[in-house]
């Protein structure tokens, strides 16, 4: 395992962090809590020290599972969770980073996680209806009170990161990043590197696409976000991405005697500015490839060849813009 630092957090952060969105069940075809807990325990055995979760993952269910899994292990793990998605009547969420919402969500998260502090507390999505000054002041108060150890933002633009960092001691940023979704490379990762922020990138396997386990006949349940919302998993794009994965897998085997899953994770870890790559898993066997990620690196020729393969197979790669939750229906202040 490789490790890095997050300012304000005494535990070293593993450069592979366990993402727990799918553990929440909603939008991922249901949950198996026993398997999820076994997965978290296996992750800790493999040296993972950072678990990333959120109340929005299964309406708090992911946090509950993480809390159960960490009984007796809390002091050895960095818990990174989020706030700012308010459930609404009839289902769904809207962005809300107001003081009242933060206080409500924090107490609920502490209860579900069975802890009295959060290592890394992150704004899940920017909220246009709440002034950054209000959100930042509330977080600084929680920091001073010892309720949280570090502040982060997720899905923020560089302009938003820069503005927020002037108001609160910001330590991390969390953008999506994988071979197919590279928007963060242009500005966010360079900014984070220059300003001493740890980048926790999510979606390293592009919602399983880069695991190498899918083919063009793969189908998804009706309650699975990939089949329901993600254009990458609909034809004709799905076929293009699958062929790209197959070509990348062939390259990984030829050049490194690895598989595409190892190549995809190493690609993220070797990108300039990346601190931690979040890897979603909910069955222990999904973590089996982890040890083979740390015995090789990609050079300039490898990056160039990966770019050529993707450009040849995918006509127009898409970033995951479909995942952004709506703003509240209220007058902006």
Secondary structure blueprint with pairings:
Blueprint: E1 3-4, E2 13-14, E3 16-19, H1 33-45, E4 50-52, H2 61-69, E5 78-83, E6 85-87, E7 93-95, H3 99-113, E8 118-123, H4 132-144, E9 148-154, H5 158-165, E10 170-174, H6 188-194, E11 198-201, H7 225-228, H8 237-256, H9 260-269, E12 274-280, H10 300-313
Parallel strand pairs: 3-4, 3-12, 4-5, 5-8, 8-9, 9-10, 10-11, 11-12
Antiparallel strand pairs: 1-2, 6-7
What does this protein structure show overall?
- There is one protein chain.
- With 333 residues, the protein is of the alpha/beta class.
- It has a domain at 3-209 and 265-290: Alpha-Beta Barrel (TIM Barrel), CATH 3.20.20.
- Helix content is 34%, strand content 16%.
- It has an 8-stranded parallel beta barrel, surrounded by 5 helices. A two-stranded antiparallel sheet has the order 1-2.
- β1 and β2 form a beta hairpin.
- α8 packs across α9 (260-269).
- The longest helix has 20 residues, at 237-256.
- The radius of gyration is 19 Å and the shape is globular.
- The termini are far apart.
- The mean pLDDT is 90.
What is the ordering of alpha helices and beta strands? Answer: EEEHEHEEEHEHEHEHEHHHEH
User: How would you name the oligomeric state of the polypeptide chains in this document?
Assistant: single chain
First-residue to last-residue Cα separation = 46 Å
The poorly predicted ranges are none
- Overall pLDDT score: 90
Residue fraction in strands: 15-25%
Strand order of the largest sheet: 3-4-5-8-9-10-11-12
Count of β-strands: 12
* CATH level-3 fold name of one domain: TIM Barrel
Number of helices: 10
> What best-fitting shape do the alpha-carbon axes yield?
globular
CATH top-level class of one domain: Alpha Beta
CATH architect. name of one domain: Alpha-Beta Barrel
The helical percent reads 25-40%
Rg estimate, integer Å: 19 Å
Structural class: alpha/beta
CATH homologous superfamily grouping of one domain: NADP-dependent oxidoreductase domain
Major sheet description: 8 strands, parallel, barrel
